[in-house]
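BUG: 3D viewer hangs when loading the predicted structure for this chain

Environment: internal workstation, default settings.
Expected: structure renders.
Actual: progress bar stalls at 90%.

Input used:
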Amino acid sequence: MKRNVELVVISDVHLGTYGCKAKELLRYLNSVQPKTLVLNGDIIDIWQFKKSYFPKPHLKVIKKFLSLATKNTDVFYITGNHDEMFRKFTDFELGKLKVCNKLHLNLDGKKTWIFHGDVFDASVQHSKWIAKLGGKGYDLLIVINNMVNWFLEKMGREKYSFSKKIKNNVKKAVKYIGDFELTASELAIDNGYDYVLCGHIHQPQMREVQNKKGTCLYLNSGDWIENLSALEYNEGKWSIFNYDDHKHNLKDDETDEIQELNSDQLMQIVTQFT
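Structure tokens produced before the viewer hung:
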């Protein structure tokens, strides 16, 4: 049985990269029936897009998005830095699928502001080549990490995250995350928002931020490379979905819900936008 959820927010899926956990994301998406789905940036990694690498599970994720949009789900695709080329299609609508740079919602009387968050990243805004190089390095690190974790699982040991270890031990990285969360929250408070939702930094979070001007709830949906997390809003409450906590209850679904679009046609569509 699928869970009915008012709002689901995912970000930083990075379809088209070796680190993307598309199969796991499909299992999650097949377990919920959201009234609204927000794709908060870096869903397709156009920076690292290659025609030679876009496996079937990645295409199935796109099919799933389209399938939801053809049914009863409002799907908002918010652009990020890795899929910034979609920004020229801002305000594009196809049925219930809409492309935008940011999103404003009213959730049970609470003003909600959703955007990817790369606007706060100086390396993205001013030294894009450095950011792209960093993206390739991160993807390579994830590939190596996946190989190490495969051996660890075979030996019955817990998985290990290289990037999390680096982030937690590098003071600049820790400060950057803290500054990011604080900047987003203070801007939200200044503009009268109760909730502010971001992605970009691959750090799932839900925390209340308060200053002299007021308070807001800062939320980050994390990513589908390492954390495998999403935000859910239902019956007036927010929660962070962690795939690892629920994976034993999720099943594979091999059915293609949109029969009229095959993999070759989907690849043509993706290529046209890149």
